[in-house]
């Protein structure tokens, strides 16, 4: 049997798509090259969201070539889509497959690449717009939580972001298929489905008839086959009062929202082409907090955008300090070719970006510690994973409001949702005690 490897960089959506490719290859008679054995085919599914991601993508290509000297090398993903010429400089790649031809990758491998010819650098970009590429759900390491891609692409064109160039326009998985996929995951034993997408808040707008994320959530809310639905990330202007109300009233939509802020300064938000203000973000966070006081509210901060003065950065810090934010993902600005921001003046010097990132991450750690501390004495619903924590052999799980929880208990509650009281915080975990009743 011919063997393959698949290396994936970047987001959960990319991981879902690699899983789709691997499954199709397996169905076509390929096996995964195990334990370092050499492969006949290497697929590298790249990312280009930052300069570092592009560099790591090139490294992954070179690593695959070095460790599999006789393999055909296929490169796909966002970096392949946006920078095929850079990839062509690496001798020995057999095919560069554009983002929108990813769904045909196995067909291309079968029909268009001759495995009996010696390695040649046949590079061909296939950059075209196409429909929604379905991808099977991937799991989180244990088979309790699955990530399901229901949306792809983005129409927003924020001035710093390469994603719309790499993934094209927003498109959605049809509602019936999405519901079916969620039911199938529930029947396969998963307890939680994380709805994933590049711009999840645009879900359904492109469908005929059009729909919305809130309507979709109301359809899946309370489905008997799945206990928990979590949203991966949603833009502040798309986290509608209806969605917050649905989550507040629902036993199945998790008390967890990840809403990218990027900057707390209106001038910078405007230059970023983010369609909201600092005040609006505050309103959304306060609305969540009033409706669901124990909700986890995470956000992304982009540090060092061109023109970010000390006072603009202070505006971001003060907004985060003021709001009940639970954790931060902090990224330094990375100029991406083709994006307007790559040629914006007033670049922030690298050492200042580094200092600001360090300060913002420290603030993020503090917010996280406060959120965890606030949870002590509360009772939360914990989905227990099917693997124990390596360090102390305790059961571990995740609460609806995104606490990582350690529990003492028997194996029989693995992959179940239990009620637990949070007793104390130990490092990055909330340590709890299971209450008498097992929830599901
Ligand atoms: S919303 Fe903005 S930041 Fe997010 S993927 Fe779209 S363009 Fe990029």
Molecular structure report:
The protein is α/β, with parallel strands linked by helices. The chain has four domains: 3-112, Methylthiotransferase, N-terminal domain (Rossmann fold, 3-Layer(aba) Sandwich); 137-254, Transcription Regulator spoIIAA (2-Layer Sandwich); 255-374, Transcription Regulator spoIIAA, CATH 3.30.750.200; 379-438, OB fold (Dihydrolipoamide Acetyltransferase, E2P) (Beta Barrel). Helix content is 33%, strand content 22%. It contains 13 helices and 19 strands. It has helices at residues 12-27, 51-67, 78-82, 84-88, 105-112, 163-167, 175-187, 213-220, 241-249, 266-272, 278-291, 310-322, 350-375, and strands at 3-8, 31-32, 41-46, 72-77, 95-97, 138-139, 145-149, 151-152, 171-172, 192-196, 228-231, 256-258, 296-303, 327-332, 379-388, 395-399, 404-407, 417-426, 429-438. The strands form five sheets. It has a five-stranded parallel β-sheet with strand order 2-1-3-4-5, with helices on both faces. A five-stranded mixed beta barrel has the order 15-16-17-19-18. Helix 9 packs parallel to helix 11. The relative contact order is 0.08. Mean pLDDT is 91; it is low at 118-122. Iron/sulfur cluster (SF4) binds next to helix 6.
């Amino acid at each position: 049997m011919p063997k393959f490897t698949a290396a994936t960089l970047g987001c959960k959506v990319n991981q879902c798509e690699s899983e789709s490719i691997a499954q199709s290859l397996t169905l076509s008679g390929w096996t995964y090259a195990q334990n370092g054995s050499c492969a006949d085919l290497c697929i590298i599914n790249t990312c280009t969201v930052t300069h570092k991601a592009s560099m790591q993508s090139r490294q992954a290509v070179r690593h695959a070539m070095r460790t599999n000297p006789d393999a055909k090398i296929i490169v796909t993903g966002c970096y392949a889509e946006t920078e095929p010429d850079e990839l062509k400089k690496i001798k020995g790649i057999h095919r560069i497959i554009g983002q929108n031809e990813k769904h045909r990758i196995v067909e291309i491998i079968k029909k268009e690449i001759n495995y009996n010819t010696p390695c040649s650098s046949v590079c061909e970009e296939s950059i075209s717009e196409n429909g929604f590429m379905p991808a099977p759900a991937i799991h989180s390491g244990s088979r309790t939580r699955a990530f399901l891609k229901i949306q792809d692409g983005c129409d927003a064109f924020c001035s710093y972001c390469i994603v719309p160039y790499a993934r094209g326009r927003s498109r959605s998985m049809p509602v019936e298929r999405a519901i079916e996929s969620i039911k199938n995951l529930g029947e396969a034993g998963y307890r939680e489905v994380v709805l994933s997408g590049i711009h999840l808040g645009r879900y359904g707008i492109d469908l005929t008839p059009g729909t919305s994320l809130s309507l979709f959530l109301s359809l899946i809310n309370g489905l008997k086959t799945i206990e928990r639905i979590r949203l991966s990330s949603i833009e502040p202007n798309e986290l509608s009062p209806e969605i917050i109300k649905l989550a507040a009233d629902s036993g199945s939509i998790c008390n967890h929202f990840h809403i990218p802020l990027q900057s707390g300064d209106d001038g910078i938000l405007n230059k970023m082409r983010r369609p909201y203000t600092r005040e609006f973000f505050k309103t959304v966070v306060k609305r969540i907090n009033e409706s669901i006081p124990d909700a986890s509210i995470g956000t992304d901060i982009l540090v060092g955008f061109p023109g970010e003065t000390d006072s603009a950065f202070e505006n971001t810090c003060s907004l985060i300090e003021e709001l009940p934010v639970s954790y931060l993902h902090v990224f330094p600005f990375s100029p991406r070719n083709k994006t307007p921001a790559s040629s914006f003046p007033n670049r922030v010097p690298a050492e200042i970006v580094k200092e600001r990132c360090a300060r913002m991450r420290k603030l993020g750690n503090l917010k996280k510690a406060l959120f965890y501390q606030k949870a002590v004495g509360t009772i939360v619903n914990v989905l227990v994973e099917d693997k124990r924590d390596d360090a102390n052999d305790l059961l571990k799980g995740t609460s609806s409001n995104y606490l990582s929880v350690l529990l003492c208990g028997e194996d029989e509650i693995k992959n179940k949702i239990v009620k637990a009281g949070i007793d104390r915080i130990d490092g990055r975990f909330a340590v709890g005690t299971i209450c008498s009743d097992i929830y599901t």
